[in-house]
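#onboarding

Welcome to the new folks! Below is a worked example of what a typical request in this channel looks like: someone posts a single protein sequence, and someone else replies with the predicted structure as tokens. Don't worry about understanding the tokens yet, we'll cover that in week two.

Example request:
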Amino acid sequence: VQVVESGGGLVQPGGSLRLSCAASGFTFSRSAMGWYRQTPGKARELVAHIDNSGLNPAYGNIAKGRFTISRNNRKNTVSLQMNNLKPEDTAVYYCNQFPTTVAHTWGQGTQVTVSS
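Example response:
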């Protein structure tokens, strides 16, 4: 599994960002995908996931009503639209298959910083 995340940056509270992930090394269209995030000293947490068809997204409480996950099986990409960002959303965001196991490797992630 290889993933490359992009789209992070510095944004003011209430702002928006769209994260993208390009995946390779596996049959993307057959795999559920997820977005995860991690802050220093804390465990990585699941933000949202989506089934292989793209028809069934699911969100953690931190994302409900603010984030939207989507995928493009032709381009092997998965995206996360984040609206109404809060300082507590500051983290490194990762994508990967869903669910993950200890055998999964992780990309570099993309840093999201929400600050005024």
